[in-house]
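Tip: read the tokens left to right.
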């Protein structure tokens, strides 16, 4: 049981950190140049100059971390699902745990929530 929980916690932390960096650093640096974004927003805050080195760094962050996060999130899902099966979590708890890996900051809350539940059930 400890190995499944450890794998889940490591993957949840990695995925959570990558998502925070991606959303709070990479996306603003790459896209906040005053132009429209993703066809959704007419304009964005003008924080960086288009074509600047800062914007290129943001684009590199979103490109590389975006791909890394996508692959690592799949591994996270597998680890979380295997832990959920082993611990016999109910469907709503499992779904919240899986989906929270896509929400910056809340992924850390979900990891603590799941860990607390596993440890409480082991003590019982």
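Filled-in amino acids:
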């Amino acid at each position: 049981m400890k190995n499944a929980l450890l794998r889940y916690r490591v993957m949840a932390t990695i995925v959570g950190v990558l998502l925070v960096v991606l959303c709070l650093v990479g996306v603003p640096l790459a896209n906040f140049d005053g132009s429209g974004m993703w066809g959704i927003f007419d304009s964005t805050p003008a924080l960086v100059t288009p074509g600047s080195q800062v914007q290129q760094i943001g684009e590199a962050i979103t490109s590389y971390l975006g791909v890394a996060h996508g692959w690592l999130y799949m591994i996270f899902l597998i680890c979380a699902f295997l832990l959920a099966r082993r611990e016999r979590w109910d469907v709503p708890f499992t779904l919240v745990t899986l989906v929270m890996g896509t929400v910056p900051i809340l992924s850390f809350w979900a990891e603590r929530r799941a860990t607390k539940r596993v440890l409480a059930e082991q003590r019982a």
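The first helix runs from residue 2 to 31. Residues 2-123 form one domain.
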